[in-house]
Protein backbone atom coordinates (compact mmCIF):
# COMPACT_ATOMS: atom_id res chain seq x y z
CA UNK A 1 0.00 0.00 0.00
CA UNK A 2 1.40 3.40 -0.96
CA UNK A 3 1.87 6.27 1.49
CA UNK A 4 -1.04 8.11 -0.15
CA UNK A 5 -3.31 5.08 0.30
CA UNK A 6 -2.18 4.69 3.91
CA UNK A 7 -3.00 8.36 4.59
CA UNK A 8 -6.48 7.90 3.07
CA UNK A 9 -7.22 4.84 5.20
CA UNK A 10 -6.17 6.68 8.35
CA UNK A 11 -7.85 10.00 7.55
CA UNK A 12 -11.22 10.71 9.15
CA UNK A 13 -14.10 11.11 6.69
CA UNK A 14 -15.38 14.15 8.61
CA UNK A 15 -12.06 15.96 8.95
CA UNK A 16 -13.28 19.53 8.50
CA UNK A 17 -13.09 22.75 10.52
CA UNK A 18 -16.76 23.76 10.51
CA UNK A 19 -16.31 27.17 12.12
CA UNK A 20 -13.53 28.14 9.71
CA UNK A 21 -15.55 26.96 6.70
CA UNK A 22 -18.65 28.88 7.76
CA UNK A 23 -16.60 32.05 8.20
CA UNK A 24 -15.12 31.51 4.74
CA UNK A 25 -18.56 30.98 3.20
CA UNK A 26 -19.87 34.10 4.94
CA UNK A 27 -16.99 36.17 3.60
CA UNK A 28 -17.35 34.84 0.05
CA UNK A 29 -21.13 35.22 0.20
CA UNK A 30 -20.79 38.86 1.25
CA UNK A 31 -18.40 39.51 -1.65
CA UNK A 32 -20.75 37.92 -4.19
CA UNK A 33 -23.78 39.80 -2.90
CA UNK A 34 -22.01 43.17 -2.86
CA UNK A 35 -20.52 42.69 -6.33
CA UNK A 36 -23.93 41.74 -7.74
CA UNK A 37 -25.53 44.80 -6.14
CA UNK A 38 -22.73 46.93 -7.58
CA UNK A 39 -23.64 45.52 -11.02
CA UNK A 40 -27.17 46.83 -10.58
CA UNK A 41 -28.98 43.79 -9.14
CA UNK A 42 -31.99 44.69 -6.99
CA UNK A 43 -31.90 41.43 -4.99
CA UNK A 44 -29.28 38.71 -4.53
CA UNK A 45 -29.02 35.31 -2.83
CA UNK A 46 -26.17 32.86 -2.35
CA UNK A 47 -26.40 29.17 -1.52
CA UNK A 48 -23.46 26.96 -0.62
CA UNK A 49 -23.13 23.23 -0.09
CA UNK A 50 -19.93 21.53 1.02
CA UNK A 51 -19.84 17.79 1.49
CA UNK A 52 -17.06 15.55 2.71
CA UNK A 53 -17.55 11.83 3.04
CA UNK A 54 -16.40 8.28 2.83
CA UNK A 55 -18.17 5.26 1.32
CA UNK A 56 -17.04 1.65 1.22
CA UNK A 57 -18.66 -1.31 -0.55
CA UNK A 58 -17.69 -4.91 0.20
CA UNK A 59 -18.79 -8.14 -1.42
CA UNK A 60 -17.92 -11.72 -0.50
CA UNK A 61 -15.65 -10.33 2.23
CA UNK A 62 -13.56 -8.30 -0.22
CA UNK A 63 -13.54 -4.53 -0.68
CA UNK A 64 -15.10 -3.63 -4.06
CA UNK A 65 -15.07 0.16 -3.88
CA UNK A 66 -13.70 2.81 -1.57
CA UNK A 67 -14.69 6.41 -2.29
CA UNK A 68 -13.55 9.55 -0.51
CA UNK A 69 -15.14 12.79 -1.67
CA UNK A 70 -14.95 16.53 -1.09
CA UNK A 71 -17.52 18.55 -3.00
CA UNK A 72 -17.91 22.29 -2.86
CA UNK A 73 -20.39 24.45 -4.81
CA UNK A 74 -21.53 28.09 -4.68
CA UNK A 75 -24.78 29.08 -6.35
CA UNK A 76 -25.55 32.75 -7.03
CA UNK A 77 -29.01 34.06 -7.97
CA UNK A 78 -29.53 37.70 -8.95
CA UNK A 79 -32.70 39.64 -9.69
CA UNK A 80 -32.95 42.76 -11.79
CA UNK A 81 -36.48 43.69 -10.82
CA UNK A 82 -38.32 40.53 -11.79
CA UNK A 83 -35.65 39.22 -14.15
CA UNK A 84 -33.64 36.31 -12.79
CA UNK A 85 -30.14 34.97 -13.49
CA UNK A 86 -28.29 32.03 -11.94
CA UNK A 87 -24.61 31.03 -12.02
CA UNK A 88 -22.53 28.53 -10.05
CA UNK A 89 -18.86 28.07 -9.26
CA UNK A 90 -16.60 25.76 -7.29
CA UNK A 91 -13.60 28.06 -7.76
CA UNK A 92 -13.44 30.69 -5.02
CA UNK A 93 -10.57 32.74 -6.42
CA UNK A 94 -11.28 36.48 -6.86
CA UNK A 95 -11.30 36.21 -10.66
CA UNK A 96 -13.70 33.24 -10.59
CA UNK A 97 -16.07 35.03 -8.20
CA UNK A 98 -16.07 38.12 -10.41
CA UNK A 99 -16.80 36.01 -13.48
CA UNK A 100 -19.65 34.23 -11.67
CA UNK A 101 -21.29 37.54 -10.76
CA UNK A 102 -20.95 38.84 -14.31
CA UNK A 103 -22.41 35.62 -15.74
CA UNK A 104 -25.45 35.72 -13.45
CA UNK A 105 -26.08 39.39 -14.17
CA UNK A 106 -25.77 38.92 -17.93
CA UNK A 107 -28.23 36.05 -17.84
CA UNK A 108 -30.73 38.09 -15.82
CA UNK A 109 -30.61 41.00 -18.24
CA UNK A 110 -31.70 38.77 -21.13
CA UNK A 111 -34.46 36.80 -19.38
CA UNK A 112 -38.16 37.57 -19.46
CA UNK A 113 -39.87 39.42 -16.62
CA UNK A 114 -41.71 37.15 -14.18
CA UNK A 115 -43.75 39.21 -11.70
CA UNK A 116 -43.66 36.38 -9.16
CA UNK A 117 -39.87 35.99 -9.00
CA UNK A 118 -37.74 37.45 -6.22
CA UNK A 119 -36.62 36.80 -2.68
CA UNK A 120 -39.04 35.90 0.08
CA UNK A 121 -40.19 38.98 2.00
CA UNK A 122 -37.64 40.39 4.45
CA UNK A 123 -40.12 40.28 7.33
CA UNK A 124 -40.35 36.49 6.95
CA UNK A 125 -36.63 35.82 7.42
CA UNK A 126 -35.73 33.50 10.30
CA UNK A 127 -34.30 35.35 13.30
CA UNK A 128 -34.04 32.68 16.01
CA UNK A 129 -31.16 30.24 15.42
CA UNK A 130 -31.52 26.80 17.01
CA UNK A 131 -28.95 24.12 17.69
CA UNK A 132 -30.77 21.01 16.48
CA UNK A 133 -27.82 18.66 17.15
CA UNK A 134 -27.52 17.73 13.47
CA UNK A 135 -23.72 17.53 13.43
CA UNK A 136 -22.53 14.22 14.90
CA UNK A 137 -19.14 13.35 13.33
CA UNK A 138 -17.89 9.89 14.28
CA UNK A 139 -14.24 10.17 13.26
CA UNK A 140 -14.62 7.26 10.86
CA UNK A 141 -11.62 6.11 8.84
CA UNK A 142 -11.65 3.92 5.76
CA UNK A 143 -10.32 1.03 7.82
CA UNK A 144 -13.13 1.34 10.36
CA UNK A 145 -15.74 1.72 7.61
CA UNK A 146 -14.43 -1.39 5.86
CA UNK A 147 -14.61 -3.39 9.09
CA UNK A 148 -18.23 -2.37 9.75
CA UNK A 149 -19.29 -3.39 6.24
CA UNK A 150 -17.41 -6.72 6.46
CA UNK A 151 -18.99 -7.52 9.84
CA UNK A 152 -22.44 -6.71 8.49
CA UNK A 153 -22.06 -8.95 5.44
CA UNK A 154 -20.58 -11.80 7.49
CA UNK A 155 -23.50 -11.66 9.92
CA UNK A 156 -25.96 -11.85 7.05
CA UNK A 157 -24.25 -14.77 5.35
CA UNK A 158 -24.10 -16.70 8.64
CA UNK A 159 -27.67 -16.00 9.74
CA UNK A 160 -29.43 -18.62 7.60
CA UNK A 161 -28.49 -21.66 5.56
CA UNK A 162 -31.00 -20.42 2.97
CA UNK A 163 -28.72 -17.50 2.09
CA UNK A 164 -26.71 -18.51 -0.96
CA UNK A 165 -24.71 -15.39 -1.70
CA UNK A 166 -24.24 -11.70 -1.02
CA UNK A 167 -24.74 -8.70 -3.24
CA UNK A 168 -22.67 -6.70 -0.81
CA UNK A 169 -22.69 -4.53 2.28
CA UNK A 170 -21.86 -0.85 2.38
CA UNK A 171 -21.10 1.85 4.92
CA UNK A 172 -21.09 5.58 4.29
CA UNK A 173 -20.45 8.61 6.46
CA UNK A 174 -20.92 12.15 5.19
CA UNK A 175 -20.60 15.58 6.74
CA UNK A 176 -22.25 18.54 5.05
CA UNK A 177 -22.24 22.30 5.53
CA UNK A 178 -25.24 24.20 4.17
CA UNK A 179 -25.00 27.99 3.97
CA UNK A 180 -27.47 30.58 2.69
CA UNK A 181 -27.34 34.38 2.54
CA UNK A 182 -29.28 37.09 0.75
CA UNK A 183 -29.40 40.85 0.29
CA UNK A 184 -32.05 41.18 3.03
CA UNK A 185 -29.16 40.64 5.44
CA UNK A 186 -29.96 37.01 6.23
CA UNK A 187 -26.87 34.83 6.68
CA UNK A 188 -26.77 31.40 8.31
CA UNK A 189 -25.10 28.03 7.97
CA UNK A 190 -25.73 24.57 9.39
CA UNK A 191 -23.35 21.61 9.61
CA UNK A 192 -24.87 18.12 9.61
CA UNK A 193 -23.88 14.48 9.35
CA UNK A 194 -25.48 11.36 7.93
CA UNK A 195 -24.30 7.78 8.46
CA UNK A 196 -25.66 4.55 6.98
CA UNK A 197 -24.95 0.81 6.94
CA UNK A 198 -26.69 -1.70 4.67
CA UNK A 199 -26.60 -5.29 3.48
CA UNK A 200 -28.10 -6.99 0.38
CA UNK A 201 -28.41 -10.79 0.26
CA UNK A 202 -29.67 -13.55 -2.04
CA UNK A 203 -31.53 -16.68 -0.93
CA UNK A 204 -32.15 -19.74 -3.09
CA UNK A 205 -34.41 -22.80 -3.18
CA UNK A 206 -35.78 -25.16 -5.82
CA UNK A 207 -38.07 -22.42 -7.15
CA UNK A 208 -35.27 -19.94 -7.75
CA UNK A 209 -33.54 -16.96 -6.14
CA UNK A 210 -34.85 -14.09 -4.05
CA UNK A 211 -33.14 -10.84 -3.10
CA UNK A 212 -33.77 -8.46 -0.20
CA UNK A 213 -31.91 -6.09 2.09
CA UNK A 214 -31.89 -4.09 5.30
CA UNK A 215 -30.23 -0.83 6.27
CA UNK A 216 -29.88 1.65 9.11
CA UNK A 217 -29.60 5.43 8.72
CA UNK A 218 -29.05 8.22 11.25
CA UNK A 219 -27.38 11.57 11.78
CA UNK A 220 -25.79 10.04 14.91
CA UNK A 221 -23.73 6.91 14.25
CA UNK A 222 -24.38 5.80 17.84
CA UNK A 223 -28.04 5.33 16.89
CA UNK A 224 -27.31 3.00 13.97
CA UNK A 225 -28.32 -0.62 14.37
CA UNK A 226 -25.31 -2.89 14.85
CA UNK A 227 -23.74 -4.72 11.88
CA UNK A 228 -24.97 -7.99 13.41
CA UNK A 229 -28.59 -6.84 13.59
CA UNK A 230 -28.57 -5.38 10.07
CA UNK A 231 -27.07 -8.53 8.58
CA UNK A 232 -29.51 -10.79 10.43
CA UNK A 233 -32.53 -8.69 9.40
CA UNK A 234 -31.39 -8.72 5.78
CA UNK A 235 -31.08 -12.52 5.94
CA UNK A 236 -34.48 -12.98 7.59
CA UNK A 237 -36.21 -10.74 5.06
CA UNK A 238 -34.51 -12.46 2.13
CA UNK A 239 -35.19 -16.02 3.32
CA UNK A 240 -38.85 -15.19 4.03
CA UNK A 241 -39.39 -14.53 0.31
CA UNK A 242 -38.74 -18.16 -0.61
CA UNK A 243 -41.64 -20.52 -1.35
CA UNK A 244 -43.78 -17.89 -3.03
CA UNK A 245 -47.13 -18.67 -4.63
CA UNK A 246 -49.30 -16.94 -7.19
CA UNK A 247 -52.66 -15.41 -6.32
CA UNK A 248 -55.61 -14.64 -8.53
CA UNK A 249 -56.89 -11.15 -9.31
CA UNK A 250 -59.14 -9.84 -6.56
CA UNK A 251 -60.04 -6.93 -4.31
CA UNK A 252 -58.76 -7.19 -0.74
CA UNK A 253 -57.50 -5.19 2.23
CA UNK A 254 -53.87 -4.11 1.96
CA UNK A 255 -51.39 -3.55 4.79
CA UNK A 256 -48.44 -1.41 3.71
CA UNK A 257 -45.25 -1.61 5.77
CA UNK A 258 -43.68 1.69 6.92
CA UNK A 259 -41.25 1.79 3.97
CA UNK A 260 -44.23 1.71 1.59
CA UNK A 261 -46.50 3.93 3.71
CA UNK A 262 -44.03 6.78 3.69
CA UNK A 263 -44.23 6.63 -0.09
CA UNK A 264 -47.92 7.50 0.24
CA UNK A 265 -46.98 10.43 2.50
CA UNK A 266 -44.56 11.53 -0.20
CA UNK A 267 -47.37 11.30 -2.77
CA UNK A 268 -49.48 13.53 -0.50
CA UNK A 269 -46.67 16.10 -0.33
CA UNK A 270 -46.27 16.08 -4.10
CA UNK A 271 -50.01 16.59 -4.57
CA UNK A 272 -50.04 19.66 -2.28
CA UNK A 273 -46.76 21.14 -3.50
CA UNK A 274 -47.23 24.69 -4.70
CA UNK A 275 -45.83 24.13 -8.19
CA UNK A 276 -48.33 21.33 -8.85
CA UNK A 277 -51.17 23.45 -7.47
CA UNK A 278 -50.55 26.55 -9.60
CA UNK A 279 -50.02 24.35 -12.66
CA UNK A 280 -53.35 22.66 -11.85
CA UNK A 281 -51.66 19.26 -12.05
CA UNK A 282 -52.87 17.77 -8.77
CA UNK A 283 -55.90 15.76 -7.71
CA UNK A 284 -55.99 17.88 -4.53
CA UNK A 285 -56.73 21.24 -6.18
CA UNK A 286 -58.95 23.47 -4.02
CA UNK A 287 -58.75 20.97 -1.16
CA UNK A 288 -57.46 23.10 1.74
CA UNK A 289 -60.01 22.84 4.53
CA UNK A 290 -61.55 19.69 3.07
CA UNK A 291 -61.52 16.30 4.78
CA UNK A 292 -59.34 13.95 2.73
CA UNK A 293 -58.47 11.38 5.43
CA UNK A 294 -60.53 9.80 8.23
CA UNK A 295 -60.88 12.03 11.28
CA UNK A 296 -58.29 10.09 13.31
CA UNK A 297 -55.45 11.05 10.93
CA UNK A 298 -53.01 13.74 12.12
CA UNK A 299 -49.94 14.58 10.02
CA UNK A 300 -47.69 17.15 11.69
CA UNK A 301 -44.54 18.86 10.47
CA UNK A 302 -41.90 19.11 13.21
CA UNK A 303 -38.79 20.94 11.94
CA UNK A 304 -37.10 21.28 15.34
CA UNK A 305 -36.54 17.61 16.24
CA UNK A 306 -32.99 17.19 17.49
CA UNK A 307 -30.92 14.99 15.11
CA UNK A 308 -33.95 14.86 12.77
CA UNK A 309 -33.16 13.93 9.18
CA UNK A 310 -34.94 17.05 7.83
CA UNK A 311 -34.67 19.37 10.82
CA UNK A 312 -33.92 23.05 10.18
CA UNK A 313 -34.81 26.47 11.57
CA UNK A 314 -34.74 28.14 8.13
CA UNK A 315 -35.79 26.96 4.68
CA UNK A 316 -33.91 27.36 1.40
CA UNK A 317 -35.03 31.00 1.12
CA UNK A 318 -34.06 31.93 4.70
CA UNK A 319 -37.69 31.85 5.87
CA UNK A 320 -38.41 30.70 9.41
CA UNK A 321 -39.80 27.18 9.66
CA UNK A 322 -42.54 26.30 12.13
CA UNK A 323 -44.42 23.38 13.59
CA UNK A 324 -47.71 22.95 11.79
CA UNK A 325 -50.32 20.38 10.80
CA UNK A 326 -50.54 19.33 7.19
CA UNK A 327 -53.49 17.11 8.10
CA UNK A 328 -55.54 17.79 11.24
CA UNK A 329 -58.51 15.62 12.16
CA UNK A 330 -58.40 14.31 8.60
CA UNK A 331 -58.59 17.75 6.95
CA UNK A 332 -55.93 19.31 4.71
CA UNK A 333 -54.65 22.46 6.44
CA UNK A 334 -52.14 23.92 3.98
CA UNK A 335 -50.39 23.67 0.67
CA UNK A 336 -46.56 23.59 0.59
CA UNK A 337 -45.54 27.00 -0.76
CA UNK A 338 -42.24 28.70 -1.38
CA UNK A 339 -42.39 32.42 -2.11
CA UNK A 340 -42.73 31.95 -5.88
CA UNK A 341 -45.63 29.51 -5.64
CA UNK A 342 -47.28 31.70 -3.00
CA UNK A 343 -47.22 34.70 -5.34
CA UNK A 344 -48.60 32.62 -8.20
CA UNK A 345 -51.49 31.53 -5.96
CA UNK A 346 -51.90 34.85 -4.12
CA UNK A 347 -51.37 33.06 -0.81
CA UNK A 348 -48.84 33.53 2.02
CA UNK A 349 -45.68 31.38 1.75
CA UNK A 350 -45.47 28.48 4.20
CA UNK A 351 -41.69 28.06 4.63
CA UNK A 352 -41.37 25.04 2.34
CA UNK A 353 -38.63 26.10 -0.06
CA UNK A 354 -36.67 22.88 -0.29
CA UNK A 355 -39.50 20.61 0.89
CA UNK A 356 -41.08 19.51 4.15
CA UNK A 357 -39.17 19.31 7.42
CA UNK A 358 -39.90 16.06 9.30
CA UNK A 359 -43.43 14.71 8.98
CA UNK A 360 -45.01 12.56 11.68
CA UNK A 361 -48.29 10.71 11.41
CA UNK A 362 -49.88 9.86 14.72
CA UNK A 363 -50.42 6.10 15.24
CA UNK A 364 -54.08 5.15 15.60
CA UNK A 365 -53.53 1.47 16.32
CA UNK A 366 -51.02 -0.89 17.85
CA UNK A 367 -48.15 -2.97 16.55
CA UNK A 368 -47.66 -4.41 13.08
CA UNK A 369 -48.79 -7.80 14.40
CA UNK A 370 -51.96 -6.21 15.75
CA UNK A 371 -52.67 -4.71 12.31
CA UNK A 372 -52.20 -8.13 10.70
CA UNK A 373 -54.78 -9.52 13.11
CA UNK A 374 -57.12 -6.63 12.40
CA UNK A 375 -56.80 -7.20 8.64
CA UNK A 376 -57.43 -10.97 9.04
CA UNK A 377 -57.32 -11.69 5.29
CA UNK A 378 -55.44 -9.57 2.77
CA UNK A 379 -52.06 -8.57 1.38
CA UNK A 380 -49.01 -7.24 3.22
CA UNK A 381 -47.07 -5.08 0.76
CA UNK A 382 -43.32 -4.96 1.41
CA UNK A 383 -42.08 -3.74 -1.98
CA UNK A 384 -43.43 -1.63 -4.83
CA UNK A 385 -41.95 -1.04 -8.27
CA UNK A 386 -42.49 1.30 -11.19
CA UNK A 387 -43.83 4.85 -11.40
CA UNK A 388 -47.52 4.29 -11.94
CA UNK A 389 -48.81 7.37 -10.13
CA UNK A 390 -50.82 10.09 -11.89
CA UNK A 391 -50.89 13.17 -9.65
CA UNK A 392 -53.49 14.85 -11.87
CA UNK A 393 -56.09 12.12 -11.37
CA UNK A 394 -54.71 10.38 -8.28
CA UNK A 395 -54.63 7.03 -10.08
CA UNK A 396 -52.19 4.62 -8.41
CA UNK A 397 -50.86 1.43 -10.00
CA UNK A 398 -47.58 -0.19 -8.92
CA UNK A 399 -45.90 -3.53 -9.35
CA UNK A 400 -45.68 -5.11 -5.90
CA UNK A 401 -44.63 -8.06 -3.78
CA UNK A 402 -45.41 -9.07 -0.22
CA UNK A 403 -47.20 -11.73 1.82
CA UNK A 404 -50.68 -13.17 1.68
CA UNK A 405 -52.52 -13.36 5.02
CA UNK A 406 -55.50 -15.51 5.99
CA UNK A 407 -57.19 -15.62 9.39
CA UNK A 408 -54.53 -13.27 10.76
CA UNK A 409 -51.64 -15.58 9.80
CA UNK A 410 -49.03 -15.10 7.06
CA UNK A 411 -49.47 -17.89 4.51
CA UNK A 412 -46.81 -17.34 1.83
CA UNK A 413 -44.79 -14.85 -0.20
CA UNK A 414 -46.47 -13.27 -3.23
CA UNK A 415 -44.78 -11.60 -6.21
CA UNK A 416 -45.52 -10.59 -9.80
CA UNK A 417 -48.66 -8.71 -8.84
CA UNK A 418 -49.92 -5.17 -9.35
CA UNK A 419 -51.82 -3.16 -6.75
CA UNK A 420 -54.13 -0.42 -8.00
CA UNK A 421 -56.46 2.23 -6.65
CA UNK A 422 -56.86 5.98 -6.47
CA UNK A 423 -54.92 8.02 -3.92
CA UNK A 424 -57.99 10.03 -3.01
CA UNK A 425 -59.89 6.81 -2.19
CA UNK A 426 -56.85 5.26 -0.50
CA UNK A 427 -56.48 8.28 1.78
CA UNK A 428 -60.20 8.43 2.56
CA UNK A 429 -60.41 4.69 3.26
CA UNK A 430 -57.38 4.44 5.53
CA UNK A 431 -58.43 2.07 8.33
CA UNK A 432 -55.53 2.40 10.78
CA UNK A 433 -51.92 3.57 11.18
CA UNK A 434 -49.56 1.42 13.22
CA UNK A 435 -47.16 2.18 16.04
CA UNK A 436 -44.29 0.39 14.23
CA UNK A 437 -42.60 3.70 13.41
CA UNK A 438 -39.62 3.61 11.03
CA UNK A 439 -37.05 6.23 12.08
CA UNK A 440 -34.89 5.88 8.95
CA UNK A 441 -36.66 8.71 7.15
CA UNK A 442 -37.76 12.30 7.61
CA UNK A 443 -41.31 10.97 7.11
CA UNK A 444 -42.01 9.15 10.36
CA UNK A 445 -44.84 6.66 10.00
CA UNK A 446 -45.88 3.15 10.89
CA UNK A 447 -47.74 0.70 8.68
CA UNK A 448 -51.00 1.71 6.97
CA UNK A 449 -54.00 -0.59 6.74
CA UNK A 450 -56.13 0.26 3.70
CA UNK A 451 -59.70 -0.91 3.41
CA UNK A 452 -59.39 -2.31 -0.10
CA UNK A 453 -57.30 -2.22 -3.28
CA UNK A 454 -57.42 -4.10 -6.56
CA UNK A 455 -54.73 -6.79 -6.69
CA UNK A 456 -53.96 -8.02 -10.20
CA UNK A 457 -52.45 -11.52 -10.23
CA UNK A 458 -53.15 -14.58 -12.35
Structure description:
The protein has 458 residues and is of the alpha+beta class. It folds into 2 domains: 3-239, PmbA/TldD superfamily (PmbA/TldD fold); 244-458, no CATH class. It contains 10 helices and 17 strands. It has helices at residues 3-10, 18-38, 94-109, 142-159, 227-239, 258-271, 274-278, 339-345, 368-375, 423-428; strands spanning 43-59, 62-80, 83-89, 163-182, 187-205, 208-218, 250-256, 299-301, 324-328, 331-332, 359-361, 378-385, 395-406, 409-422, 430-433, 443-444, 448-456. The protein has a 6-stranded antiparallel sheet with strand order 3-2-1-4-5-6. A 5-stranded mixed β-barrel has the order 7-12-13-14-17. The longest helix is centred in the N-terminal third of the chain and has 21 residues, at 18-38. The radius of gyration is 25 Å and the shape is globular. Mean pLDDT is 95; it is low at 1-10.
The chain-level mean pLDDT equals 95
What spatial order of strands do you see in the largest sheet? 3-2-1-4-5-6
| CATH fold node name of the largest domain | PmbA/TldD fold
Protein structure class? alpha+beta
Q: What is the CATH level 1 assignment of the largest domain? A: Alpha Beta
User: What is the CATH homology-level superfamily of the largest domain?
Assistant: PmbA/TldD superfamily
Low-confidence stretches: 1-10
The radius of gyration computed from the alpha-carbon positions, rounded to a whole number of angstroms, is 25 Å
CATH architecture of the largest domain: 2-Layer Sandwich
Anisotropy-based shape? globular
**What does the main sheet amount to?**
6 strands, antiparallel
Distance between the termini: 56 Å
Report the order of strands and helices: HHEEEHHEEEHEHHEEEHEHEEEHEEE
**Residue fraction in strands:** 35-45%
Percent range of helical residues: 25-40%
Number of domains: 2
Tally of helical runs: 10
Strand element count: 17
Amino acid sequence: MSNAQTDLVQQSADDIDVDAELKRFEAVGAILIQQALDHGASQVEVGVSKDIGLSVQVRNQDVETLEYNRDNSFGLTVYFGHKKGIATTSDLSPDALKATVEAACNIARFTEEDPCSGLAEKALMATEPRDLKLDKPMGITAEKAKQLALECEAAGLAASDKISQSEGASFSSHRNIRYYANSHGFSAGTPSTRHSLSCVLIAQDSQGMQRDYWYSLSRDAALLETPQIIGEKAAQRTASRLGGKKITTRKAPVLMTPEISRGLLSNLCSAIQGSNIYRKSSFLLDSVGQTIFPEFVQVEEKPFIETGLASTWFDNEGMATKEQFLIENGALKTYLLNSYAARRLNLPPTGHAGGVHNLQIKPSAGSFEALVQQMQTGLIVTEVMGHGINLVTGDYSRGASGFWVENGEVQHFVEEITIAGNLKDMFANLVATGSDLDHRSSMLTGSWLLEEMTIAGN
